[in-house]
Specification:
With 138 residues, this protein is mostly helical. It contains six helices and three strands; from the N terminus they run αβααββααα. It has helices at 17-31, 43-56, 62-71, 91-105, 109-114, 120-132, and strands at 36-38, 76-80, 86-89. The protein has a three-stranded antiparallel sheet. α1 packs across α3.
């Protein structure tokens, strides 16, 4: 009997800057507040907020500042309300969280956002995957 050859392939999923901001907004304003809070006293956070304001001539929301921190190659920090563990979310970790979410749930984040099928639970899971590598809460 001939041995069958298995073919494997990967599918690339793209996220726009708007998608990243949508995920962060949904997470910060509705998805993650029950288990963590943002550390908005960190110097990288403060600098990113100033930078956003200068570049956009607008006062940044939390999601804008979080995105700017990651865009600057830094990490924004989340503090676990239960045990005070500090999680640092870099752009790389955020994208890993998105990839894990896609692999585990089979959802295309970009398409889900465009088709209004993305919610606070989805955003929460992405942030948990980014922070802890798995979904712990929820």
């Amino acid at each position: 009997m001939e041995k069958e050859t298995k073919l494997t392939f990967g599918v690339q999923h793209g996220l726009t800057e708007g998608d990243v901001l949508d995920v962060l907004t949904t997470a910060i304003e509705g998805g993650i507040g029950y288990w963590c809070c943002l550390d908005n006293t960190d110097p990288d956070w403060i600098e990113a907020g100033k930078q956003w304001k200068e570049e956009h001539n607008d006062i940044p929301c939390y999601c804008d500042t979080a995105y700017q921190v990651m865009k600057n190659g830094k990490a924004f920090k989340l503090i676990d309300e239960e045990d005070e563990t500090v999680y640092e979310i870099t752009l790389e970790k955020f994208l890993q969280g998105c990839m894990k979410f896609t692999q585990e749930l089979g959802k295309d984040i970009h398409r889900s956002i465009r088709e209004s099928e993305f919610d606070a639970n989805d955003a929460d899971m992405i942030i948990q995957y980014a922070a802890m590598g798995e979904v712990i809460y929820g």
